[in-house]
Amino acid sequence: MVLFLGSILAFGSLFLPLKLAASELPDLGDSSASVLSAEDDYRLGQAFMHNLRQNIDIVEDPELNSYINSIGYRLLSAANTPLPFNFFIVNEPSINAFAGPGGYIGIHSGLILAAKSEGELAAVLAHEISHVSQRHLARAFQKASSAQIQTFAAILAAVLLGSPELGTAMIATATAGSIQQQLNFTRDHEREADRVGIDILANSGFNPNHMPGFFYRLQEAYRYMESNLPELLRTHPVTPNRIADSQNRARQYPQIEEQTSARFSFVQAKLRSYDKTNLTRHIKRLEAKQANAQTLSTAEQYEYALLLLTTGKFEAADKMTLKLLGEANESAIFIALKAQIEIATQHPDAAVSRLRQALLLFPNHPQLSTLYAQALIDSGRPKMAADQIRTLIQQQQKFILPSYYQLLAKAESAAKRDGNAQIAIADYYYMIGQTHAAIEQLEAALKQPGNTSFQTERIQAQLDKLKRELLETEHKPGAAKQLSIDQKQQ
User: Fold this and answer.
1) Residue 448 burial by CB count (10 A; 0-12/13-18/19+): exposed, middle or buried?
2) Collapsing DSSP states into helix, strand and coil, what is residue 307?
3) Which residue, 87, 206, 351, 459, could crosslink 339 as a Cys pair with Cβ 3.0–4.6 Å?
4) φ and ψ at residue 82, rounded to 5 degrees
5) What share of the chain is helix, strand, coil (3-state, %, to 5)?
6) Distance from CA of residue 82 to its chain's centroid?
7) Which of 330, 329, 379 shows the shortest CA–CA distance to 353?
8) Does the active-site annotation cover 128?
9) Active-site residue 231, yes or no?
10) Longest Cα pair distance anywhere in the chain, in angstroms?
11) Between the CA atoms of 90, 229, 121 and 111, what dihedral angle is there, to the nearest 10 degrees?
């Protein structure tokens, strides 16, 4: 299997202390704020994320999104940074992770599946958090500060993801080449990220020895890929010296009695169900284990049921799911799995009843809530579904997925509330970076008969905001100012 180390190397080879050796940190200063302000960083992050959503397969699963953010925010509790962060999973088998502007940190599914434990996954996240908290990206932009924000976003996505399809043409240009040079962090940046990251890991209750362990695995991958690595990755090799350094730093921490989540093995199981090209192989692996009289673990049974559901073997999936529920009938992931089968087999009323009870135990649970909304739509109660998904959106705030707005639009459309549906789909388009399409939807919503004055004002305000953002990102001189004049004349 081809392994892309991506910006685990490009953003820094990995892993880190702060309390341990704060006096040893190099004094890098922070003139980067004059080049990339907090507001610029946020806008660049938005553009970066919009670019990614249009070019790569970001996992929209509410349960997986909740999990990766729970690990990320556990680490952030020890990071002592006020910066905003958002963690997401890319459905890509390569071993890769990256930190973009605005605190957006992506983890490839291949990396999660390659990790031997939740602690190893946390080690990668801690390193990427450190690059953001130490403003390494802002410092790398200092020599290229005049470039346009959208150009930054597109090229940054190409460089970090190591994707030939996404970035070959752009990186071939002189401008892209200049920015690529700025992304090659200095050794001081890497040492700083190593130290800060190990401190974050240890202070979050994870064993810091996970870092050298995962480091070693990266070195092994690098050893067999050396002739194929792009130049960007060659500038950040995982060397025996770095492994030894991380081992020495980890040893200086006291022994930690690590507390990890039991969810990790189930997350890995679910990610394998997203591997569409290998579903049959995964099923055969589990069936072979059973044929050899080997007992499947609970996580493997869950994976087997998911794979059967994904491949349309509903009866077999249901049989396995009932077995799991018999052993743990108050497990949110097993309840969700049973509800998915009920929805897929056109029994939405049963799913509604099951999920309504489950949400009493797990209020605002992202996956249960979205399944409940879908079941309500299928059972002919779209207005209730719209209320459910709106409540979830309000509750989630920082962790809203574009798919939430798709589901809301579906509910509103089924309820014959076309204006509301258009507003919801506009929100969806905006989240995935298709601002022109979002504007078209809002303009259509504005023309809907029966809008109240409040609804009209709300739609117009959102429409003006998106038009202004679009003009600013396209860098049309005076356009934003002219828009302001036009609005005053309306």
Assistant:
1) middle
2) helix
3) 351
4) -85, 0
5) 70, 5, 25
6) 19
7) 379
8) yes
9) no
10) 78
11) 50
| 201: pLDDT strictly greater than 70 | yes
The active-site residue out of 92, 118, 120, 194 is: 194
Two tokens, residue 394 = 């309000």
Number of other residues whose CB lies within 10 A of the CB of residue 129: 29
> What is the spatial distance between Cα 463 and Cα 446, in angstroms, rounded to a whole number?
9
CA triple 236-185-56, angle to 5 deg? 75
Query: Looking at residue 147, what is its pLDDT?
Result: 44
pLDDT of residue 246: 81
Torsion of CA 101, 59, 81, 95, to 10 degrees: -80
Lowest mean pLDDT among 8-22, 262-276, 374-388: 8-22
Contacts of 171 (CB under 8 A, 6+ apart): 155, 158, 159, 177, 180
**Given the residues 61, 63, 118, 128, the one annotated as active site:** 128
Token pair in block for residue 315? 């009866």
What is d(CA 155, CA 165) in angstroms, rounded to the nearest whole number? Answer: 12
Exposed/middle/buried for residue 293 (C-beta within 10 Å: 0-12, 13-18, 19+): exposed
Across the chain, mean pLDDT equals 79
CB contact at 8 A, 392 and 362 = no
- Amino acid, res. 308: L
Average pLDDT value for residue range 170-199? 58
Instruction: Quote the Cα angle for 264-59-215, to 5°.
Output: 50
- Residue pLDDT, tens place only, 145-183: 444 455 555 655 655 554 444 444 444 443 444 444 444
Banded model confidence at residue 433, pLDDT cuts 50, 70, 90 = confident
Q: How far is CA 192 from CA 198, 203, 260, 375, 390, in A?
A: 10, 17, 26, 49, 42
Which range has the top average pLDDT, 31-35, 106-110, 128-132, 163-167?
Answer: 106-110
- For the chain, give the percent of residues with pLDDT over 90: 50
The helix-helix angle for 348-361 and 332-344 (nearest 10°) equals: 160
Angle at 391 between CA 385 and CA 397, to 5 degrees: 135
Kind and range of the H or E element at 437?
helix 435-446
Three-class HEC string of 50-98 = HHHHHHCCECCCHHHHHHHHHHHHHHHCCCCCCCCCEEEEECCCCCCEE
Question: Which residue reads 């303009």 in tokens?
Answer: 443
Q: Are 297 and 265 spatial neighbours (Cβ–Cβ below 8 Å)?
A: yes
Is residue 49 within 8 Å of residue 149, measured between CB atoms? no
